[in-house]
Amino acid sequence: MRVYEAIVKGLEGVGVRAAFGGAGENAAGLMLALKHSKLIRPVITRHEQAASFMACGYAMYTNRLGFCFATAGPGAFNLFSGLAVAMSDSYPVLAVSGYASMEWRGWGSLNETSGLNRTPDSQAMFAATTKKSFLLTDAADTCDVLEEAVNTAFEGRPGPVHIHVPENLTHRGVEVRNFRPVKLDVAPVLPDPARVEEIADVLADALAQGRRIVALVGFGAVRSGAGPEIKRLIERFRIPLLTTLDGKGIVSEGHPLAVGVFADSGHSSAWKAFREADVVLCVGNSLNQHATFNYHPGLFEDKLLIHVNISEGEFHKAYPPDHALLSDARPAVAALTDALERRVGEVPPVEVDGRDYEARHIPHRTEGIHPGQLAQSIGRMLPPRGVLLADAGAHLAWLGYYVELEEGQNFRKAGSFGPMAGHVNGAIGLKVAHPDRTVVVGCGDGCYSLSGFELMTAVENGIPVIWVIFNDGQFKLIKLFQLVTYGEPALVEFRNPDFAAYARACGAEGYKVETLSEFKEAFRAALASGRPALIDARITRWAVPHYSPSPDGVIPELVDTLEERLRDEAD
Questions:
Q1: What distance lies between CA 63 and its chain's CA centroid?
Q2: Is residue 331 predicted with pLDDT exceeding 70?
Q3: Residue 351: its pLDDT value, please?
Q4: Nearest to 411 by CA among 382, 395, 387, 375
C-alpha cells in the first residue's frame, strides 16, 4: 500500500466521507487514491482556499472530520484561511499537503517550502494555523502520524491539524508495509461533579432569593447538540434565554422564554433582559467582540458570571468568570439541571418582554429591496431543518436581526477569524455533509465576487446550495465605518456583472430580482429545483443595519444620521 492509499484507507476507518482539494503534482497520488475509494467522495475545487472552507462546512454540524488537501507550495498556502477558520470556530479539520523531496531540501526546487536558503517555511506557517502540524518523513510512520493528527483534531476544543507528505514518499516502490486501522479514541470533556454541585448551590441560592438569572448561549452549545438540555433547563427553572448570533435556533426563537440575540446587531429585548440580570449563565460562548459590544468594560459589573466552556483558555480572556465549569456543553447543562432539580422546587413564572424581531419600522423610500424585508422573507421561507449561513458583511446584521429560527434550523455567521467568502464556499461542504437539509447562503456582492467561481464546483458535483446575493454595488460595512470615523467614504464602490446570467452560464439556476414579490417567487423556484441556484437581489443602497455600540441600546440619532448621509450619497 502506498502512502496516500494508506492515508485514505485510514480516513475511511474514522468516518471521513468527503474530501475537498485542489489538483497538483504533489497531490496526484492522493487524487488517485480518492478516485478508487468506495467511501470518500472527492470534490476538486477551482481554488484550494475554497477547499479549506468546504472542509469547515463539512465539519460544522457533524462529529466527523473535515478533510482538505493541496499540492506543495502555493497550493498548500491557499489552505491557510480555512484552517484559521477551523481554529477560531472549533471545527475538527485535517489538511494534507505536499512537500518537496527531502533530499532536495534547501536547493530551491519547485514548490519547496523547507525554510532553508530563502525558501518559505511551511512547517512554521502550518504550526501557526493549526493545533499541530506534522512532517511525515518515513512511510512506516504513516498510520501513527495520521492517528495522532486525527485524535488531536477532536481532543478538547476541536480544531485543525495538518500533515506534510514529501514528494519522495510518493515515489514508486515506497510502501506502507505496516498498515493498521486508525483508532479515534477521544475522551469526552465531562464536568467535574464537585464543581457542578458548587455552581448548582449558587444558582439555587439565586433562585431562592428571587435574583434574576439569564442564560447566554453560543455556538458551542449548538455544536454539542445541547438544544434539548438547554430547553429543559430554561423551562424547568424559568430562565430567560439569550443567544449569540451563532446560538440562534438552539431553542425555537418563538419560545416564550427566548428573548432574542445579545450582540451589537441584536435585539433590545435581549439587551434589557441582560441589563436587569443579576446572574449570567454563559454556555458555549467565547464572549468575543460582537457578543460583548467591543469588550465593553462594564459589561458584567454587578453581575455574577458563570461560564461553561470546553476550553480552559476561554476563562482567562476579557471576562474572568466568578464560577467556571470546564466541560462540553451538553453533559454540563444536563448535570447542572439534575443538580438543581435536587435543590429547587416550583419556580414562579418570570416576566419576559416580547422580542422585537420586527418591531422596528422598516422605511422603504427608494428603489430596490430593503435588506431587512429580504432577511424576513428568507427566514419565513426557510424550510424545516434548513441551515442559513451568513458571510461577512452588512447582510449578516440584517439576517441575524430579522430571521427568526425554529427548532431544528441553524444559523452561522463568519466566525471570529471572519473571512469574506468563507461561507460562500463552506456551504458546499455543509451540503455534502447534510444532503437532506436545505442550505442557503446570504452573502454580499463583495463576498460572492471573491470566490463565486466555485459555483461551477457545485454544478459539476450536483450540490444544490442556494446563494442569495445582497447586491448594492458597494462594501457597505466599510462605507459605514468610514462615514462614522472619517466623515466620508472612499474606494468602496464597484461594478458587478449580471450574476444571474453568470449562474445560468455555469449550468445553475439564476434569478435577478428587484422586488420582494419577485424574490419570493425566485426563492420558491430555487427550493423546488433541487439544483445549485443563485438569486441576485438588488437591494436599496441607503439602508443601515440595526446596530448598537453598547448594551444600553441603539442610539437612534446615529442610525438616522447614517441613513441621511447614505441618501445624500445616492442623490
A1: 15
A2: yes
A3: 84
A4: 387
Task: Please give the Cα distance from 300 to 337 (Å, whole number).
Answer: 24
8 Å CB contact between 16 and 10: no
Work out the pLDDT band at 61, boundaries 50, 70, 90.
very high
- pLDDT at position 281, please? 98
Instruction: Enter the C-alpha cell of residue 86.
Output: 477551523
What is the pLDDT, as a whole number, of residue 361?
62
Q: How far is 334 from 122, CA to CA, in rounded Å?
A: 43
Q: State how far the Cα of 194 lies from the Cα of 176, in Å rounded to an integer.
A: 48
- What does the pLDDT read at residue 552? 80
DSSP-derived secondary structure for 284-339: S----GGGTTTT-TTTTTT-EEEEEES-GGGGGSSS--SEEEES-HHHHHHHHHHH
- pLDDT value, residue 531: 98
Question: How many C-beta atoms surround the C-beta of residue 345 within 10 A?
Answer: 7
Say how far apart CA 348 and CA 364 lie, in whole Å. 43
pTM as predicted? 0.94
Distance, first Cα to last Cα, the chain:
68
2: CB partners within 8 A, 6+ apart: 29, 33, 170, 174, 175, 176
DSSP helix, strand, coil percent of the chain (3-state; round to 5): 40, 15, 40
Instruction: Answer whether residue 307 shows pLDDT above 80.
Output: yes
Beta-carbon contacts of residue 461 (< 8 Å; ≥ 6 apart): 43, 428
- DSSP symbol at 506: H
- CB within 8 A of 359, min separation 6: which ones? none
In whole angstroms, give the CA distance from residue 215 to residue 518. 40
Q: Which three cell numbers stand for residue 192?
A: 467535574
pLDDT in the model for residue 434: 98
In which band, very low, low, confident or very high, does the pLDDT at 27 lie, cut at 50, 70 and 90?
A: very high
Instruction: Encode pLDDT of 432-473 as tens digits.
Output: 999 999 999 999 999 999 988 899 999 999 999 999 999 999
Helix (H), strand (E) at residue 568 = helix 556-570
| Per-residue pLDDT band at 373 (split at 50, 70, 90) | very high
d(CA 444, CA 309): 32
Return d(Cα 141, Cα 120) in angstroms, integer.
Answer: 25
